[in-house]
Specification:
CATH topology of chain B: MetI-like fold
Distance between the termini of chain A: 49 Å
Number of strands of chain B: 0
Low-confidence stretches of chain B: none
Subcellular location (chain B): Cell inner membrane; Cell membrane
GO molecular function, one term (chain B): transmembrane transporter activity
Oligomer: heterodimer
Largest sheet of chain A: none
Helix content of chain B: over 70%
Shape of chain B: flat
Distance between the termini of chain B: 42 Å
Number of strands of chain A: 0
Protein name (chain B): Arginine ABC transporter permease protein ArtM
Radius of gyration of chain A: 22 Å
CATH superfamily of chain B: MetI-like
Strand content of chain A: under 5%
CATH architecture of one domain in chain A: Orthogonal Bundle
Order of helices and strands of chain A: HHHHHHHH
Family (chain B): Belongs to the binding-protein-dependent transport system permease family. HisMQ subfamily.
Number of helices of chain B: 10
Keywords (chain B): Amino-acid transport, Cell inner membrane, Cell membrane, Membrane, Transmembrane, Transmembrane helix, Transport
Shape of chain A: flat
Chain lengths: 234, 240
Amino acid sequence: MLDLKGYGPALMDGAIVTIELAFLSLALSVALGLIGASAKLSQSRVAKGIATTYTTLIRGVPDLVMMLLFYYGGQVAVNMLSDYIWETYEIDFFFQFDPFISGVVTIGLIFGAYMTETFRGAFLAVETGQIEAARAYGFTRFHTFRRIMLPQMLRHALPGLGNNWQVLLKTTALVSIIGLTDMVRVAEEAAKAERMPFHFFIPVAFVYLALTAGSELFIKWLDKRANVGVVQGG
Amino acid sequence: MPDFIAEWLNQNEIFTAMTIMEYWDGMVTTVHLVFLSLVIGLLVAVPLAILRTVRNPFVSGPVWLYTYLFRGTPLLIQLYIIYYGLAQIEGIQETFWWEIFREPFYPALLAFTLNTAAYTTEIIRGAIISTPNGEIEAAKAYGMNWFMRMRRIVLPSAARRAVQAYSNEVIFMLHASAIASVVTIVDLTGAARNIYSRFYAPFDAFIFVALCYMALTFILVFAFRKLETHLLKHQRPVNG
């Protein structure tokens, strides 16, 4: 049996932090992706411009730089804000920007940009006839979105969504750099203390492998379900 | 204009000629590291991709395992395993390898190369297996042997199909190289982290470096777009 030198429980906690981080960032990125895709497809020039700037900026900058900017910059910004609130309203407000929050915000923002592209493509793949039919039935815009667009575009979005999720999962490892005690951080500390790098990093690598392999199976299953009514040629 | 820049630099506490030089050195390190790992990675990936398409599972299986392991785990872990792990190998400190791997640059180069080679192998494999059957049949009808077919028909046509996905991989690699700063390499991100900790000015340090990366990214995107139009020239519509 693998002897983790007493680091087992800490690694376990770290794994849970990784998974929590991944799911929260996924939720944020899906929300941002839906908003971004709607903005890109909207009539408004301003909304389109903002969404395009957002996706272009995110794709030009490395995730780690973004994370460092949010983590170190976020605290400075919060400090400035609390100084300002104290001076003008005399309210004592302080907020500690912790690595977990910066991690969720950064990863959510980065993958929100990728999700925007995925969802945009998926929305465009929904047949216009479907939308016209919904209008003819007197559906409001919101109703059309919720009842017609959303369920049909999910099928097209799923492969891209799955890919983004796999990349997101691996990106969570970066949060150990800004000091969050996820499993990579625990493994790094253990490896340094015990001078046994292979002993700690390889099991962590296998946890990631198990997570990506598991997600792959789950996405395949979801894809099968989502495409259940689709008649495919060939 | 240069006077204006000089004056601005004189007034500015953070962006002095010295820090600009630090950023410049960092940029050189980043470009050096990324360029070398991409070139070596591509050279390794082409034969691996061909092996990956071989029917014999004893040949394609190990390549599949390699790409699966390197694509299924974070690059940061791969970097840690190589960076910390190489020093732990029995007796390495007595061999000449230690002269090379003592510097953090080479373990990082090895990790990045292995990682990009795994992704590139899968990209090229995808392009190889989607070669139209007719092209291969035609090559066979001309009496080309396997090697000639590969060299003259399959690989050139696969390269055209792979270039789009490969450009994404190149940009991904540029962005992923930021983690080199974790193993004490002073690349662009490393320079920004040093300057941040000296002045406690996160916005100046990191926004500037983000702009540097963005410039590099857009240069790459532009170059690949040019390359793609060049490679797909024959498919352009006549009146287009």
